[in-house]
């Protein structure tokens, strides 16, 4: 009989969160070598087992790569560069609809799994992105960035490395969708749109906090479903505008 795998320790989550943060803020850049195992043990005051578990998890998610006899490195070109500048020409609604349908299939399940599996550190990352989005207010560029960060944090909290990898692989197309929805609005219209989005984000966050996978899937389904419906309406009635 196969023995169940040992659950990941809280200390491992702490190390993963800290190292992931350094990848996000580019303290460690693509191709950089990480400090030695001994140095990481000293820095985080943890055992070698904890560091090895953290590195193994991050290798599995595609963030790190080990080179035998050399060390551990940040994966080359692990993410496409993200351009958060809203381009006026980025308004291909049919392409954006295709991306939204893909996201629905991906993110609804990821959200349910996040409610089941998220660690305290992963929940903190979701909350941080949620707060950043709410603070963005009328800053369109900041709102687009925080919106994507919120969804990516949820995908990571699923603890299935393929969810964030797929979302990041499609980042350019996801940004197209966000550009369409955030762009072309007056400041007042943008504020109303962001307020509606914040309410939907809060419902998602609440379900994840309560570890309620059914409610989490339903909240994400409503959130993405509204956008899908608007794009379909636009394509059937050319005069309509999904951004409102």
TrEMBL record:
UniProt entry keywords in alphabetical sequence: DNA-binding, Transcription, Transcription regulation
CDD domains per the UniProt record, alphabetical: WHTH_GntR (cd07377)
Highest taxon listed in the record's lineage: Bacteria
Coiled-coil intervals, chain numbering: none
Pfam family, one: FCD
Residues in HTH gntR-type domain copies: 9-77
A GO molecular-function annotation: DNA binding
This protein's name: FadR family transcriptional regulator
Organism whose genome encodes this protein: Achromobacter aloeverae
Organism classification: Bacteria, Pseudomonadati, Pseudomonadota, Betaproteobacteria, Burkholderiales
